[in-house]
Amino acid sequence: MSCNCENITCLETKYATCSEGAQLNIIADETGSWVGEIEFNGVWAEFTFGVINGQKIVIPTVVLNGFYTHTLKLYDTVGNLINDTCYALKTVQMQGAGTYSVIPASTAAELQAEINLLNATVVVLQEEIDVLQDEIGNMPDLFIFRIGAGGEATSNMQGYSATFANGVTSITFAGLIGKTEQSMFVGQQYNEAVSSQHTFDNTTGTITFTSELYDINIYFTTI
Length: 223
Known about the structure:
Blueprint: E1 8-15, E2 21-27, E3 32-40, E4 43-51, E5 56-60, E6 69-75, E7 86-93, H1 105-137, E8 141-147, E9 160-164, E10 168-172, E11 181-187, H2 192-196, E12 198-201, E13 206-213, E14 216-222
Parallel strand pairs: 1-7, 8-9
Antiparallel strand pairs: 2-5, 3-4, 3-6, 6-7, 8-14, 10-13, 11-14, 12-13
């Protein structure tokens, strides 16, 4: 028995003689290349094989001797002894026991590299999404107020719109409460006085003008 085997765990594997690999009841907690050390009649041999995170490991049958109890040590991608134990691995050759393929160590390493790249890509994409969400959150809201039946038909992706009768000198809209004015434009019958001479009270959501309004659209943006 090799040294550093203070802990021994009993394990059995059944495999068909034609099988490339033997499956062990050990679940890999990473994807990559593992190293195995196996003893037969006092002689130790080393081999490598690939593992997939969350799947049972498969070791090559060429390192096994049928109907023998090997001492087996397994090491992860950074050289740590798996489960801090050695295994007393009993092998049983059995027809119909199932055939398993061994994952090449290089393939597992390539898979891990791809996983690392995908994880890095996800991080970058999430950062871009966060930036876009911040930008969307900082976009101004557009309020469209139609004055009189003559106001042009409008659509508003934010969904803020209301209609008021001709002759009003103020507009009160609950959606404006707590908002900060960014800009205001007057459409169809443009009136500079209407656009520039107004006051906005965000405690009541009221825009007050210095003159009466007739058949125009008020485009009011807030942040």
